[in-house]
Amino acid sequence: MTDDLAASIATAITQAFGSLASSILKSNDLKMEAEFERERAVTELAETREEMKRIAREAEAFKQRQKVVFLSNGVTISGSALLTLQETEDRAVEEIENLKQSGLSRQMLSRYRIQQLRNRGKAKLLGGVGQAGASIFKATLESRNQDRGGVYGPPIQAKSLND
C-alpha cells in the first residue's frame, strides 16, 4: 500500500468519524430541544389549568355578589334574576371551555413539534452513520482498485498476433 493510499484511507476514516461525531452532537442537540419543548408544554398545561380554576372561582364569586345584590334589593332569585345568574354561569363555562380547547390545541402542537424534533435527531444520527460508512467504503474500494491496477482490475495483457 502506498503512502498516498494510506493517507487517503486515514483521511476518509477521520472524515467518517468527524461526520459521525457531528451527527451525534446534532442529534443530542435536537433531543435537548425536544426535552425543553416538553417541559414548556407541561408548564403551559399547568398554567392553563390554573387559569381555568381562577376563572371558575371568579365567576362563582361574581355570581354570589349578584345574588347578594338581588336579595339586598328585595328581588327574589327567580325569573329574570335567575336568568341573569344562569347567564353569568354559562359565560364562565364557555370561557373555561374556550381556554381548555386552546390549551389542548397548544398541547397537540407541542407534541407534534417534539415528535418532529426527535425524528430530525434520529435522521441526523442515521445520516451520519451512513455518511461515515460511505466514506470508509469508498476508501476501501479505492484501496482495492489501486491494488488491482485500476477500477477494472489489472490491465489485460493482449497476446500478440505472433504468439
UniProtKB/TrEMBL annotation:
Keyword Coiled coil appears in the UniProt entry: yes
Region named Disordered: 144-163
Record key words, sorted: Coiled coil
Coiled-coil intervals: 31-102
Superkingdom per UniProt: Bacteria
Protein's name in the database: Uncharacterized protein
Organism: Candidatus Thiodubiliella endoseptemdiera
